[in-house]
Amino acid sequence: MKKNVGILLLFLLLGWLAGAWIAKALEPVQALSFLTASTPIEWSPQANLDIISYDITIKFKLSLLSLIGIIVSVWLYRRL
Fold first, then answer.
1. Chain CA centroid to CA 46, Å
2. What radius of gyration, in Å, describes the C-alpha atoms of the chain?
3. DSSP state letters, 63-77
4. Rounded to an integer, what distance in angstroms lies between the CA atom of residue 35 and that of residue 65?
5. Which of 1, 17, 31, 39 has the fewest CB atoms lying closer than 10 Å?
6. Cα–Cα nearest to 63, from 19, 32, 1
């Protein structure tokens, strides 16, 4: 069976989202702060070319639980 790259991206996104939701739910638990602490990753390309200009900001928040969610999603994808 040929696996689709789009399905892999969907699994990765859903795993990341599930991990982020679990991290958000566990934020009040101080003992698990090492799992819920997130690191922001930001990219801001911009240009002004006289006739057109753009300014885009893309932000990602990655926590250990999000990373675990991504790893589990890859594992589930490979089990298909």
1. 23
2. 17
3. EHHHHHHHHHHHHHH
4. 6
5. 1
6. 19
Q: How many Å apart are CA 33 and CA 25, to the nearest integer?
A: 11
Token pair listed for 4: 């689709």
Residues composing the chain? 80
Question: Which pLDDT band, with edges at 50, 70 and 90, does 3 fall under?
Answer: confident
pLDDT (tens digit per residue) in 5-31? 999 999 999 999 999 999 999 999 999
Structure tokens at 6: 């789009």
Q: Nearest 10 degrees: CA dihedral of 65, 68, 74, 78? A: -130
Give the C-alpha separation, 19 to 24, whole Å: 9
Three-state SS at 32: helix
